[in-house]
């Protein structure tokens, strides 16, 4: 899905930027080789970055049936 229409950036690109070290929207745009324009995408982009940077919760251990 497109997040930034001005630069045709998709959610996957923001996730990849975060996984590559981008800590905020500005650095994510830079990692994508783009510059922010209108700003309407900032909230969604920030949310995607935050989700990508959040530590994954450990999965509960399976309990064997008796």
Report on this model:
This protein has 66 residues and is mainly alpha-helical. The chain is 42% helix and 8% strand. The chain is built from 3 helices and 2 strands, in the order ββααα. It has helices at residues 11-19, 25-31, 42-53, and strands at 2-4, 9-10. It has a two-stranded antiparallel sheet. Helix 1 (11-19) packs across helix 2 (25-31) and helix 1 (11-19) packs across helix 3 (42-53). 24% of the residues are buried. The model has no long low-confidence stretch (mean pLDDT 89).
In short:
By secondary structure, this protein is mainly alpha-helical. 42% of the residues lie in helices and 8% in strands.
Q: How far is the first residue's CA from the last residue's CA?
A: 45 Å
The number of helical segments is 3
One letter per element, helices H and strands E, the order comes to EEHHH
Low-confidence stretches: none
- Radius of gyration (CA) equals 16 Å
CATH architecture: Orthogonal Bundle
| Major beta sheet, strand line-up | 1-2
CATH class group: Mainly Alpha
Helix/strand-derived category reads mainly alpha
* pLDDT averaged over residues: 89
CATH topology: Arc Repressor Mutant, subunit A
* Major sheet details: 2 strands, antiparallel
Strand tally: 2
Instruction: Say which CATH homologous superfamily is assigned.
Output: BFD-like [2Fe-2S]-binding domain
Protein name: Bacterioferritin-associated ferredoxin
InterPro entries: BFD-like_2Fe2S-bd_dom_sf
Organism: Glycocaulis albus
């Amino acid at each position: 899905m497109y997040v930034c229409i001005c630069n045709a950036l998709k959610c996957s690109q923001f996730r990849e930027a975060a996984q590559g070290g981008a800590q905020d929207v500005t650095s994510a745009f830079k990692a994508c080789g783009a510059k922010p324009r209108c700003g309407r995408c900032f909230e969604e982009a920030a949310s995607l970055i935050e989700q990508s940077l959040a530590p994954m919760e450990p999965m509960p251990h399976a309990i064997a049936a008796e």
